[in-house]
Each structure stands twice: as structure tokens, then as C-alpha cells.
Amino acid sequence: MDKVTGKAVILSSLGPEFRLAQMFPGVPDEVRERHRFDWTTVTVPEMVDRLREACTVPLRNGATGEEFLGIPPHPQVSNPSVDFVLANRDLLGHRMQKTLGRLKLRAQSQFKKDEALELRALWKHFMLLEDHISAPFRQCMLDAEGRIGPNFGNLDMKSYCAGDLYERTANYLILKSMVAHWEKKYNDAIQLDTLPDNDGMNFYAELYTGDPKRYLPDPPIIFRLNEVSRIVVMAQKMCAAFVNETELFDDLPPEVKFVEKALSIQGGTALRQFMLEDFCPNENVDPASLREALGRLYQQMFNMQTDPYGDLTMTLWNLCESTRRGTDDGREPYEEYIANFSGRNYENNPGYFQTYTFDHDKNSLVRFLDSAKVIEKGTAGSAEDVAKQVKGEAFQLLGFDIGGGGSPNPNAPRDDTKEQKAYVVPEDRAVGRPHMLGWLDILGEDEEGGNLKEESFESDKWEEVKA
């Protein structure tokens, strides 16, 4: 669904080349020249200001008739804002999304409500633009899932993976995502299979390795090593069979072909050497253009769901980082805004905001962990002993009878005096942070969108994108 129109995505009826342009959208050269950042000098405040300017349109209050400039009411977007984001797709993306979120929280932590509201509106609007721009790509990928899924194990790739260029590109990305997804599951299964059973500390290693859905009574996933190994081998064979069919693979977009070739090269230096000396000359593509195309592909993949596309998406980001190193594209103005720490005091970073601890609910996971006993390495018993302790504390937390009761004990005495006592956060978790500052709640009901429904576009001044 396209979140702007609220309807299913309709791919162009003008021909496959137009559908490919929908899958990998761009802007005309004159629009790009007008909007594109100079990455060698641009700063984050400048990028935010220019994004805000591109997204600002004439509005009218439906109740009073008052005219003003602002962000379009959700879920509407303007053509100039779409053009601006497309011109800088590889330079905005998830880093700008994270930066806007942190700046909003910073303004809240400083109790600057109006500024926080403005940043929240821009932040949400930017995410809407990303969803809107990515909608055709997601539809192409969904169609490719429908072609490949029912044919898993069929190595006659031409029988179901042939088609127009945009279809074959989506087919390859599905196959490569499938390989990355199952290789991750395979590595998790190996790690779980090699953990000793007689070490209590491995109980926690098992908890955070792999997909937690395997702990459900009837797991809806495949996670055992013998099963995963068969699937990952077949996924690799299918992807290799696709790549080896020249009619299917050889005319794919350069950035897509680069992914396949680059992942077999070890080391960043060797990768950049291959890109500059072999791939770019052979494909007749400029290295800067290839780096930008990789960034755009990454952003399209970033807007897919994490499961099962997150593993390939992270691989694409690593390729972007490796190919940018040592070039002007390697400059990172976002770092001080989104990094959790830096060489200087983090409190001096422009994206810093003061966090604080909460009065968590009695039955919350945080309160449970606060009250759990510390298990020192070397003093723990078996994994069964550790599991028994955790289970017992969890039962006490939820009000169950100790010893196996299947439902809360309604006759358990309630100690109201304990609830009236001030909640003291353990020092090892508080790590010096203040308690209950309250700034996270200052936007109140405005967090739900305020009265945006009363606003409307001035359609005679700006063209509204509706389809």
C-alpha cells in the first residue's frame, strides 16, 4: 500500500522501462542540480533547514480560513518535497531519519515544546516521504516473492525468473536476500549447537542467539542446524544458478551486479581496487555514480521489512561504507548527531539529550531485571539451576504461586506499603542519570497529530501528489 494514497501500488502501464524507473526513481538533471547537497561542505543544520523548506507548503486552517506555511497534513506530500528527497536519496535516508528523531528528543529534554513539535512534524513527514518513494520498489519485491517462493528448490531459473529488467532485478534481490537470511540462521544454529550444556552462563547466550520464536510451544520457524543447513545450501544454489544465466543477470543495473561480485572479495582495500580498476571500466560507470547508486539501493532495501531483508541490507551498508572510504563521499557530517559516543565528551555533541530513569510498573520487565539476583561467573550451578531461578523470580513478579501454579494466585497477600515506597533504581543501571525528569511527556496529546485534519493544501499554489 502507498501510504499517501491509501491504496495499492499501481505500476506504470507505459512499459517495463517506466516500471524500472518507478523501482529506482530519480529526478531530471536540472532538478538534481538545484537540490543536491554539496557533500564536501554541507552541515546537518543546513540539511535540516533545506529539507524543511522543501517540505513547507501554503496551508489554510479549515476552521478559521487563516493561511500559513507549514508541513502538509498527514498523509499528504508535495512534488517539491519528493524531488528534494530523490535528489539526495543516498545522503538523507536512515541517517537523516535518526538525526531528526534525536533533535526532537533533544528539544524535549530542554523543554522547548514548540521546537519539538516542529521537529516531530518534519520527522514524521520525512518518514512518510520515504515510504511513499519506496512503495513501487516494495511492490516489485513482493511480486518477486510470489514468483520465487513457490519454486524454492527449482534450479531451472529461466522457467520462473525470466522477464523484464525490473522483474529480473527484483528476482535477484529476493534470491540474494534469501541467501543472506538463511546464512545468518545457519551461523546462529552452529553457535547454538556448539554451546556446552554444562555451563550455566551459556543459558543467557542461548537466549540472545537466533530467533526467540523458537521458544514458543510450537515454533513457527525453522531453526535446527540439520534443517537450516539444507535450506541454506539450496538457497545458495538457486542464487548461483540465476547469476550464471547470462540472459537473466548480465544486463542488471551496475550497482546490483557489483553487489554479487563484491561479496566474494575480502578486505576493503582489495574491494576498492576491484571497483576502480576492474568493475567500473568494464561496466563503463563512474565510481562516484556507482557509490551513489549503491546508497540509493541500500535506502530502498532499508525501507523493506527487517525480516527477512535486514541481513542483506546491512551487507549493502557495509559495501557503501567500504567503497566511500578515502573519497569525498566518506565524509560523515551526521556522526556527532547520531553517534552514541565520540572522541570528545558525548554531552557536547549537538545530538545529545539527557536521558533519565522511570518509575516502571511493578510487573514490568525492567522491575523484574532490577530485582533479579546477580549470577557471578563460576558461582552459578547448572543451566537448569539458572533457569529455575529465573522462572521463580518471573513467577513472583507476575503473582503466580511458586512451585508451578498455572494461573495467578488471587489469594496472594497484597503489600500496599511496598507500592507506596519510592522506587529506587539500582545504581548499576542508573549510572548517575537523574530520575523522572518528565520531559518525554511534554508533548502530550500533540504526539497524536493535533488538529492536522483542519488543514488543507492550497491546490492553486502547489500541486498535490495524489497518485
Automatic annotation (TrEMBL):
<feature type="region of interest" description="Disordered">
    <location>
        <begin position="448"/>
        <end position="467"/>
    </location>
</feature>
<feature type="compositionally biased region" description="Basic and acidic residues">
    <location>
        <begin position="450"/>
        <end position="467"/>
    </location>
</feature>
<protein>
    <submittedName>
        <fullName>Uncharacterized protein</fullName>
    </submittedName>
</protein>
<feature type="region of interest" description="Disordered">
    <location>
        <begin position="401"/>
        <end position="420"/>
    </location>
</feature>
